Amino acid sequence: MAAQISETDQINQFQEFLGIYNKLTETCFLDCVQDFPTREVKPKESTSLSAKAEVLGQPR
């Protein structure tokens, strides 16, 4: 039988996830809008964005 995670622990984990997600999206947003009119995604940035997506468990 699988161990149950308490409701308090689930809430804490979700709050931590949301905090990380908010920091990540803010960082990505600020990186993109900094030079938006002339924006071109460079290979190094593409790799970095892929790595950040993996942290959130998103497919590349």
Folded structure, characterized:
- The protein has 60 residues and is an all-alpha fold.
- The chain has a single domain, classed as Helix Hairpins.
- The protein contains two helices and no strands.
- It has helices at residues 7-34, 43-55.
- The longest helix is centred in the middle third of the chain and has 28 residues, at 7-34.
- The radius of gyration is 16 Å and the shape is elongated.
- The relative contact order is 0.10.
- The mean pLDDT is 79.
What is the fold's blueprint, element by element?
Layout: H1 7-34, H2 43-55
Keywords, please?
60 residues, mainly alpha, Helix Hairpins, 2 helices, 0% strand
Unreliable stretches, pLDDT < 50, 5 or more residues?
Answer: none
CATH classification class: Mainly Alpha
User: How many H/I helices?
Assistant: 2
How would you sum up the global shape? elongated
Structural class: mainly alpha
Q: Mean of residue pLDDT? A: 79
**CATH H-level name... which superfamily?**
Mitochondrial import inner membrane translocase subunit tim13 like domains
The rounded distance between the terminal residues' Cα atoms is: 34 Å
